[in-house]
Fold this sequence. Notes:
- By secondary structure, the protein is α/β, with parallel strands linked by helices.
- It folds into two domains: about 5-80 and about 155-260, 3-Layer(aba) Sandwich (Rossmann fold); about 90-155, no CATH class.
- Helices cover about 30% and strands about 25% of the residues.
- It has seven helices and ten strands.
- It has helices spanning about 45-55, 95-100, 110-125, 140-150, 170-185, 200-205, 240-255, and strands spanning about 5-15, 20-30, 35-40, 60-65, 70, 80-85, 160, 190-195, 205-210, 220-225.
- The radius of gyration is 19 Å and the shape is globular.
- It starts with a strand and ends in a 10-residue tail after the last helix.
Amino acid sequence: MTEFIDIKGVKHAYDTASGKLPVLDGLDVSVPEGGFVAVVGPSGCGKSTLTKLVAGLMKPDEGEVWLNKTPVTSPRSTVGMAFQNPVLLEWRSIIDNVLLPLEIVPTVLTKRQQQERARKLLSLVGLEGFEEKRPSELSGGMRQRASLCRALVHSPDVLILDEPFGALDAFTREDLWQVMHQVKKEEPFTGVLITHDLRESIYLADQVIVLSGRPAKTQYVLDTGHKGARDIEMLYTPEAAEMLHTLRRQIEIAQGRIPAEAAQ
């Protein structure tokens, strides 16, 4: 299968008052076209830095980042991003918030087609009838659905989700996990999910990549054995419990709480 996202030997450090702070050290990550990977690891290990590199918002100090066999050297309009904070503009209606990327990214769609696409996406995530509402009139989960539509409205090849459900309550979070599977079925993309929620990682992703402590490299890769939509009940199976146990142990290793040999 063709690798759509290919991160090869990436090293990156930030300048601080006390000198260089290494964040990534020889990171290797590959995602096949249409694949969905989740990236987990200790806080501050460089997960969000990885997303900025894929989006072309920064360049690595060493190594290469490729999208669809093309090196990433600048911001890419073919990448959509959704974050923990939806950052919707209060003075714009929900549909106008969704349409915002089409005011920035070149499009061949007419104004009518843009409206139709935005309404289709809002309907897909359960927001039909809320198009003219303001962000303050929606719940947190509804605002996050609108943010997801905004990230997809320009039909990106790659969707990056940086802890988009982290601030939501457990019930709303699980509801949006199921929405994500429906969205991916209707709007195919290659996905990268940054999360601290191990249940979320195995429910949404084909593979889960565990990053080591900073400076991070790929410590462990778990194949969930699932591709595409799945029932929420899978989280309560013995197989899911075993995957969660494995990931939890790998996180403890990355945190330096247990030695690597203890997880064998």
